[in-house]
## 1
Amino acid sequence: MYLERIIIKFGGESGQGINTVGRMLTQSINRLGLYTFSSREYPSLIKGGVASYQIDISNKEIFTSAKKYHVLCCMSEKSLHSYLPSILENGIVIYDGEELEFSPDEEIELQKKNIHIIYLDSEKIALENGATKIMANAVLLGFIWKILKQDLEILIEEVLEMLSDKKIDEEAEKKCLLAGYNNPQYRNDFSISIDLPKPLQTNRKLLITSNEAISLGALTAGMRIFCGYPMTPATSISKFLGDTAHETKIVFKQAENEITAALMVMGSMYMGTRAMTATSGGGFDLMIETISCCGITETPFVVVLAQRIGAGTGVPTWTGTGDINTAVKGGHGDFPRCVISVSDAQSSFTMIQKAFNIADKYQLPVIVLSEKQIAEAIYSIDKLPTAEKIERGLQKGEKRYEITDSGISPRWIPQKGLKPYISTSDEHTEDGKSTENAEEIKAMSEKRERKLEMLKSELPEPKLYGSSSAQVVFVGYGSSKNALLDTKQHRDDIAYLHYDYIFPLKTETLMKLAEEGKRLILIENNQGGQFGKLITEECAYQFKEKLLKYNGRSFSLEDILDYLDN
Amino acid sequence: MALDIKDYNSPYQPTWCPGCGNFGIHMALKKALIELNISPTETFITFDIGCNGNGADTVGTYAFKSLHGRSIAVAIGAHIANRKFTTIATIGDGGCFHEGLDHIVNAIKSNYDITILIHNNQNFALTTGQATVTTPQGKKMYALPEGKPERDIDINTFLMSLKPSFFAKGYSGDLVQLTDIIKKAIKHKGCSVIDISQLCPTYNRECTPEWFNENIIKLDTLEKYSSSSIEDAKNIIEEMSKTKKIYTGIIYANDSIPTFYNRLESRKGILSELSEEVKEYNIKELLKYCN
C-alpha cells in the first residue's frame, strides 16, 4: 500500500540502545541518497517500558511515519508482542535473543501474513567475534543491511565514520557488521517485498530534528541568550544550544523555573539583545504573566511552545495541538501578540527567524508553536532554507511610547548617552509614566491594538498545497501538513490549506474556497477543534467537517485515506 | 561635569505617604550613584509591585517596572545582556520573600553582578497593610483581627544560609550610612543584597524612628568586626536572632567568589556585550552537531 516506501521499526525498552542503532541505520541509508523520516516513540521513564524508533525510507521527501512496517527488529519481548500486529505481509521480524513463544493468535497471524522470524542473539555473536557487548548493534545493522541488499562497504565506511570520535576497536566493529551481514539465517526469499526505492539523487541528506532547526534558526537570527527549564518535548532545544555554546558564544542559562526563564528573556530583550525560551504547555502557563507584561510594556519576546497532549501533566512524551487556545488567548488584559506554528525542519528554521523580526519590529510577544511529533522527528532534507534578513525596526525618538498611526512607537536600545526610558507594567503615558487617566488608558490601549492590525495586513495568506481545482480541501497547521503532503503522493484530488500564522488570522483564501463550494475539512490534533473555533471567531465560517485526533498520536497518511474512503 | 541629584530625577513627584522610608532609600540610592559618578544613562533599575514600585516614575534612568515578585529576574536578564550598565533590582519584603522567593535564592547562588535593595517595611503596604513573613507573629494586621497566626521568618539567617558574596543591612532613616552601603554594594563584584529596614508610618506604626534608634546598632561601632570574616558574620546573625536587635552595615563581603558571567566558558575573552552582538550568525559549522 505504500508507494516507494520501505519501513523499518526498532522496538525495545527505553535505555536498550534502539536510538543508537536507529540513528546509525538512518544515517547509512541517507548516505545512499535516499530520504528518510525517523520518529521515536517512548514512555516517560528512563529504563524499561516499550519504546520504538521507526525509519521510513523513500526516494522522495517524506514527512510522516507509516502505521505498518516491512521489518521489525525488537530487543525486548514486550516490544515484540506490542508491535507485531502492525507488520506488513511477507515482513521480517528480527528478535534479538533466544527463541520465544507466540500466542496461538499470533501464530495464526504470522502464518497468514507469511512473516519470517529470525532469532539473532546479537550480544552473543558480538562476543564470539571478539567484540564487546556494546557492539551488538553492529550485528543487527549488518543483518538488516543484507536484507536491504546494499553494499557492505558503504555501511562499514559510514559506521566507522560515525564512531570516529569514540575510542572503539574498529576491527571488532567491522567483524560484527560482517557477522551480521553474513549470518547464515539470511535467505534469498526474504526480501521479495523489501526493495529499497532507487535513489533519484546521490547527495547525502542533512538529518535534522525540528528542535535543532529551531535552534539553528534562532542563532541565525542573532539570538544571543537562551534561558530555559527542562520540559519535554522542548528540552532538546536547550541541549543543542547548550552543547554548542562553546562555538556560538551565546549565554545558555538553565533557569530555576519557567517564570524566571521568561522574565530573563524579557529583561534581555529590553536591554537590546535577542533572547529566547522554550517550553511545553505547563511551563508556558507559568510564563503567561510575563507574556502579558511584555504586551503592555511592548517588550519583544520569543517563546517556543512545543506541545504535548493533555491538560495538567497530560501524556508527556506524546503529541497534540491542544495549546492553541492558551497561545492565542492566555494572559490577562488586552494586548497584541503573534502566534506562529511550525510544521517541519525547514519551516522551523525559517519561522523562528520571522518570529524574532516580528517581535522586534512590532514590539510584542511572539509564540512559536511546535508539537512533539515535529520537535523530535528526524527529517532528512537537502538543505536548510536561506537565512531571513534581520529586521529590528529600531528607531530613536523622544517618547518611548509615542502614539503613532501605525501603533509602533520608537524603540531604541539602552545605551550610554541616549535618552533613558522606563518600561512599566502599569498603563502609562507616551513617556512611560504610569497613568489612571481615562483618555490616556484608552488611547494607549488602542495604540497597541493598531500594531496588530498592521501586522495582520503584512502577514501572508495561508498556502494552498495541491491543485486549486481539487474539490476536497483540508485546512490545518503544524504537523497536519506532513500527513497531507504524504497523502497527496497517493491522491492528487485533494488539496491542503496550510496556516503558518495562527494569530492574527488571515481568512480571505479560506472564505474564497468556501464560496467556491469546496468541501472544507478542518484537521486538528486536539479534541476541541480549537483552531476551527478561532476561524469561526474571525470570519464566522463554521466547519461542517472536522477530522480531529486526540490520542497522543499524530496524523498518518492512513488516517487521511481512511477518512476519505469512509 | 559633576553629576547632580537632579540628573537622577524624572519630572514626576513621588506619591508615597509623608514619612515613608522610600524617600530615604531613593535619596541614598541616587546619592550613591552620583558619588560613584555613574551616569543615569548607564544605570538600569528594576522595580517591583508595591510602594517601592510606585517610585519607578520618579527616576530618570533606564528602568523597568515589572510584576509582583519579579524585579530580580528581570534585572538579571538585562544585566547579562549588557554588563556595562549598573543594574539595581528593588523589591519589597512581600515581593522578595513571598511571590518571588525563588529569584533571590537563585540570584545569590548564581552570584550575578547586580545589587538588590530589599525595601523591608514588614508588611504589604500598598494593598493596605497585610502581614508578610517579616511581620512579627501575633501582630494584628489587615483581615487578621486576632493577629498573624504564622511564625515569622528570620530573613538574616535565611539569607546568610545561601552564602551570599555580599550581605548588608541598612536603615531608611540613616541616609549617610545607607548611601555608603549602597556604594560598596554597587562596587562589589557579585550579587549584593541589602536588607533595608524601612519606616512605614501608616502600617508599621510601632517601628517609629525612635524605635529604630533604640534597636539599631551600627557594626562600625563594634570594637572588633570584620565584614570579610564569615565567623563574625555568623555570630552577628545569631546575635540578631537572639536579641532582635538590628545590626546595620556590611555584614559580610567576599570578592573572591566568581560571578555567573565570569564562570561561563563560552564568554571567556569576549569583550563585547550580548546586546551588541545581534547579527546574522553563520550556522554552517554547527550542522555537524545535528542529530
Note: The longest helix of chain B spans residues 21-35.
## 2
Amino acid sequence: MRILCLVRQVLDAEETVRIKDGAVDLSGSKLVIDTMDEYGVEEALRLREAAAGVEVVVLAIGPVRCEEALRTALAMGADRAILVESEAALDVIAASKVVAQIAEKEGIDLIFSGGQQADWDSQALGAATAERLNWPQATWTSALTLEGGQLSGRHDIDAGSETFTLALPAVVTTQQGLNDPRYPTLPNIMKAKRKEMRRDSLVDYGVQPRLRFVSAQVQVKERRRKILDGKDAAAAANQLTDLLRNEARVIA
Amino acid sequence: MILIVAEHAGGKLSKSAYEMTQAARDLNREGPLTLLVLGSGVGAVANQAALLADQVLVADSPALAEYDAEVWAAAIAQIAAEGEAHTVLIGGSRSGREYSPRVAVKLDAPLIEDAISLTDEAGELVADHYIFLARVTERIAAAGPVVVVTIKPGAFSAASPNATPSEQYDAELDLPERRLSVTGRVTEKSERVSLPDAEIVVAGGRGVGTAEGFTALVEGLADQLGAAVGATRAVVDAGWRPYSEQVGQTGKTVQPKVYIAIGISGAVQHLSGMSKSKVIVAINRDADAPIFKESDYGIVGDVQTIVPALIRELKGS
C-alpha cells in the first residue's frame, strides 16, 4: 500500500504577515510545515507502523523553498518526497490536477490533505483531488483506523460529528485531534538528508491557473483599545458595563 | 442562470440562503435567479425559497434525506449543467466547503472559496476573501462559462422576500451510490443560542484556571447576557469543554456584535475565528497579552474577581 501526504510550507503562526506591492511578502519570514499537513504525515506513519509493506510519499507543489517542509516530513519518517516546482501560487482546482496525476502514476491508495490551509485558508484540495480521481473522501477527520482495506473513523460535520467507514482508495482531510505529530529526532533528521527528493516541473503536468490574483491587503480593523485597570474590580466592572451600554451600545 | 444551493435545517430555509440571495441580487448577472432545494420532505422549505427566487428547483426524494458530499455534488453539477448556470453559489458551511470543490471539478469551473464580496467586472467574477488565518483580505478574479463560489456566512445581509412566490419545478436527478457509510452521529446540543448565530459570545481560555472556573465565570456571564459560550483550543484539549464550543482555525468562526474574551491570550489561531466581531472585550491579567491589541475594551486584572464583579453589576440593574 502506498500513501501520499500533501505538504505545504506556510508562514509560522507567530510571524507577522507583511504586504509588499499589493501581495503577501514571505521573504525573511520563518516558514514551517502546515500543522494540518503534519497530522496527515503522522497518521500515514502510524498506518505504516501498524502494517507491513506501506510506503509513505510526501508531495509539495510550490517554489524550491518548499523542500524544507518536505525535509521535515522526511525527518518525521516519510520514505520519499516529490516537489512539483511552481514559482507562482497555484489555486486548488489547478493543483488538484497535479495531485491526481501523481496519485495515478505512483499507484497511491490513500491521500492525506490538510483540513484547512494556513496560507490560503482553503479547504478544497482534498475534495477536488478526490473528484478528479473519482474516489470518496472523508473531510475534517479526527480519528482513523485501517483494517482490511477499509477505513473507519470519525469526522466533523455541520453540527457535530459522524463515525464512518470508507473503502480504499480514498482521500482523507485532517482535523485537530487526529493525532499528536512527532518531532523529528536528530538521527532521523540526518537520515532524511539521504532520502529521495524528486523535483518535477509544473510544465510537465499541463496545468493552467483557474484564478487570477488581483491584490492583497492586511486586514486592519481599528479597535478602540480602551483598556481599564482592574485593581478595583467593582469600579472596572461598572465602567466597562457603562461603555458597553452607552458607548458601544452592544448590550441592554 | 444564477444557481443558489439553498441550505435548510429543521424544515426551515437557513439564514445562509437569504444571504446568498442578497449576494446574487447585488451581483445582478443576467438570467433567472434559481434556488435549488435538495432534501426529503422539503415542501415547506421550497415554499420559503419561492419567495426569494425567480424560480425554484426542488429535488424531493428519500435518497436525499441525509447529506452526502458525492450525492450533493452530482445533483448540483447536473442541474448547473442542464440549466447552463454561469454562477453557482454554495453556502460556506462545513458541508458546502466540502462538496463545492467536487462541483467545480465536475463543471471544469474555477472555485472561489468563502467570498465576503462579489462583483461582476466586465464578465469576470471578482471576490474578496480572507487568507492567512483571516489576517489578510485577498481579491481574486475568475472567468469562464461557469464559476463556483462559496459564500462566507454572515458576510452578506439577508435578502427580504418578494411579495409573490415564484414557480417551482421538480428536478430529475441521476444520483450516484454513497461510498462514505455513516455508522453513527453525534449532534451538538446546547440549551444556549448557537455560536454562529449568537449576537453575544462569552469565551474562556486557560486563564480561567479550571473547568469549574470556566463554569462559574464564562457560563455565569453568558447566562447573564443570554450569550453563547466559546472556548479556546487549549481549554478543549484540556477536556474542560466540548469541541463544539471551540472558536478558531480548527473550530468555529463567529462574528457577533460583542465577543467577550476571558483569560484568553489571543493566539493567531484563536483570533482567526473571532477577529471579525463588531466589538471585542478582553479580560486578562497580562497587560501584554496580544488580545488587548485586538480589543475595543478591556480590563487588566484577575478574572476571578473581575468577572464576578461584572456579573453582579449586570444583575444589579
Note: Chain A has a mean pLDDT of 95.
